[in-house]
Amino acid sequence: MPKIIDFDSYLILCFGKICFAISAMTPERPSLLALADDAGQSSTDEDSPFVPNPRRAKWIDRISAHGPWDGSTDPLSLRGAPSLPMPVEVSNKASLVPFFEHISVQMAHTKPPPYYDTDFLDFKKAVLYADGRVDLCKMATGPTNIGDLMDSLQSNHFAKHFLPGNNIIGSTGAKAIADFVKGKPDQFETWYLAGNFIDTASFSILVDAMIESKVITNFWLKRNPLMAKSAMDVFRLIEHSPVLRTLDLDQTELGDDGVAQLFRLLAKYEKPIALRHIYLTAVGIGARACQPISDYLCSPHCALESLYIPLRYSVPVSKLIELHNDSHSNHAASTTTQFTFSRLYQAIHLSRLLTSVRPTLLKDLGMRFNWITDASATALENVIRANNLQYLIISYTPMTQTALKSIYDAVLSSQSILWFHVAPLVKGGKS
């Protein structure tokens, strides 16, 4: 079972090791709910009813006016958010040549590290790090220059992590990379190919090459239009990559159908796989994919440590909690779990404790606010009592104080909770 669970307008199951680190830094930390009550104020001032805050009032008014989502009158697409890269202009070749020439001859990295303990060499259109990272993110090599880039890497044996994110290389670039991998399958451990217009057909070509590698540990594909038809190729990549630990499929338009197919294949696969972390944010998951996901989480062969699962409002909250409770029976049950119910914001990696909210993202991604009612109180209480939960952030909710009391009691009796926060929409509700 994943080690951290974060409920946003998406359900996101995040990195367990982070919570272990937090726990290690704060041994035997008392309940934050108790601390807040002793202080006579909320544990999060921004949402405290005791602290005047126009931003909080704005959110309460907005969410209250929106009310519960009605799928019959306000349907949401299950294809996922559009997988468009960030807008960039293709670089001219002259600006890239110095870097191409350098990596084809030598890999010197002479400047001292600015923030991290890693030497680097900075070019106009790339950064080369002593730890083997070749970082060209947002440098926009484009389809016209990707061939030269891959050619310049042919004679190189130093680079281990290739990061041409948001370089809009398209099918031409995908083929160039596939050809490179066929010739040097064990060159790169990390491939960060986010935002490159890699479509279904291009991805299939990439997978054909990538599965020959024995060293790929991380593959990042966010904001590429893979579509539902890529589900089988995603499974092939997972099945045949012996050390692939992290797979990023955020905003790839896999959709409800594609995710359902992927997890059906994973649930039926009876051999151990290396995958430990999978990102599926903003891919359009709905009710159809829930059962296959649950089946895989219950599988004795599932060894996931973190799982980002976005769920649209076509999935009831009770269904999400049921999915989590199912996964609790997994042999790999975690010792740390985080639940967060709050507003949607894109690419969240922890919770709103560590991330500022950008309200426009709700509109940008075509999402709606959570509306977690008293009907979910018992299910939430059971989750708190049945798991080693460390973080519970319900955030804005129409739950009554009566329903919330059972959750308060469960949190106060918990020996593992490190952080709890709820912001009732009811006037006078205790945060």
Descriptive account of the structure:
Pfam families: LRR_6 (PF13516). InterPro entries: Leu-rich_rpt (IPR001611), LRR_dom_sf (IPR032675), RanGap (IPR027038). GO terms for molecular function: GTPase activator activity. By secondary structure, the chain is α/β, with parallel strands linked by helices. It has a domain at 1-73 and 337-431. The chain contains 14 helices and 14 strands. The chain has helices at residues 16-25, 32-39, 54-66, 93-105, 142-152, 170-183, 200-210, 231-240, 255-268, 287-298, 317-327, 360-364, 377-386, 401-413, and strands spanning 6-7, 11-13, 120-123, 126-129, 133-135, 161-163, 190-192, 218-220, 246-248, 277-279, 306-309, 337-340, 389-397, 419-424. Helix 10 links the parallel strand 10 (277-279) and strand 11 (306-309). The longest helix has 14 residues, at 170-183.
